[in-house]
Amino acid sequence: MSPRRTWATARRVLQQLAHDPRTVGLLLLFPSVLMMLLRYVLDSPQRFGASAPALIGIFPFTIMFLVTSVVTLRERRDGTLERLMTMPLGRLDLLLGYGLAFGLAALAQVGLVVLVTVTWLGLDVAGPLWLLALVAALDALLGTALGLLGSAFARSEFQAVQFMPLVVMPQVLLCGLFVPRESMSPVLEAVSAVFPLSYAVEGVNRIAAGTNQDLPRDLGIVAAAAVLALGLGAVTLRRKSA
Q1: Residue 241 in domain
Q2: Where does the signal sequence lie (predicted)?
């Protein structure tokens, strides 16, 4: 692993993203647009305040998973990854470079959605905003890592999108957004405890409520899941395009 090669990979990905305004718009603006839509659909500060903290974590996670898996798969399909792997570039350098590039994009995305939600849309957050942004950013990084991992098993962009119902939707349904996890059946609660998104949602809800109980555990689980996904992605990264 070489920090110089990792940063060179990240810089190349960022330069490519900068020349793709549609992807940049999806990454940076779409979560904020969804939050604004939710605010005016609910048309109630109380109802918005009950669901918005969880969605600050869910929207970046979902969008980063989708964009990362599709962009990475596109580079594999075009032969870019295959050419890079012929160079003296380790798999971990490559995956960390992609993770760093999309992670920086995720930080900008989360910063914007938190700013819009708290200032313009009037979400009342009892805890520190930087801590809320930190949890949401870790969750976006988790989506990035899972997207990189999922792209290793897809042969087309359509197959990459098909991983959404498999990887993302079960976590969204069981993370506590619709029904508190403790109110679920024992089987579903046990399954939800395996999903890292559950702990990200719990973390942002704790910060919004002004309590930090079990927050270090939540942060640790989300970060560990992201690191594990990146490690598995490095192991499963193919040297040849499918």
Answers
A1: no
A2: none
The DSSP string of 60-112 is HHHHHHHHHHHHHHHHHHTTHHHHHHTSS--HHHHHHHHHHHHHHHHHHHHHH
**Is 103 in contact with 134 (CB distance < 8 Å)?**
no
Q: Where are the alpha helices (DSSP H) in 116-238?
A: 129-151, 157-163, 169-174, 186-192, 196-209, 215-236
| Locus of tokens 């500060």 | 45
pLDDT in tens, 139-196: 988 998 898 888 878 777 777 788 888 899 999 999 998 888 999 999 999 999 999 9
**Which pTM value belongs to this model?**
0.85
Number of structural domains, the chain?
A: 1
Which residues form the domain of 214? 3-236
- C-alpha–C-alpha distance, residues 226 and 148, integer Å: 10
For residue 241, what pLDDT is reported? 47
242, part of any domain: no
